[in-house]
Design brief:
7 helices, about 85% helix, globular
Length: about 140
């Protein structure tokens, strides 16, 4: 999602194309995740419950696109500038990326330590650098 938000020209934000690109990226990633995990699991076990579990586990993918796309869509109404909407969307995604180690620690039953939080911040910075490099190399 971060790359889709960051790579969109401001004209795409202004005319709503960026919001559609982020939604499309989210939906396609959501479906690809469910498909891949379902195919992999069917080689092991074929249970309807597993598909429902995959749907549940994929909700964060869908939600990671919904709010940034909504923020980008607001820019089409001139309530906020395209640049501000894009910056807020990218910031929100980076914040979510920084939370991954915290969620992983909680799922493992581990305490959320200062180290885990620092790893999250570093992860968000690395994600932002990767996106910046991608934009520089491909645009």
């Amino acid at each position: 999602m971060l790359a889709a938000v960051a790579a969109a020209p401001l004209s795409y934000v202004e005319d709503g194309t960026a919001a559609l690109l982020v939604l499309g990226t989210g939906v396609s990633t959501f479906l690809a995740h469910i498909f891949a995990d379902t195919v992999a699991a069917s080689a092991i076990r074929a249970e309807r419950r597993h598909v429902l579990e995959e749907l549940r586990d994929s909700v964060p993918i869908a939600s990671s696109a919904a709010v940034p796309a909504a923020l980008l869509a607001v820019a089409t109404t001139d309530l906020v500038s395209a640049a501000l909407a894009q910056a807020l969307s990218a910031g929100l995604i980076a914040l979510r990326v920084s939370g991954i180690p915290v969620v992983a620690a909680r799922l493992r039953g581990s305490a959320v330590s200062f180290r885990v939080v620092v790893v999250g911040v570093v992860l968000a910075v690395v994600a932002a650098v990767v996106v910046a490099v991608k934009i520089v190399l491909t645009h």
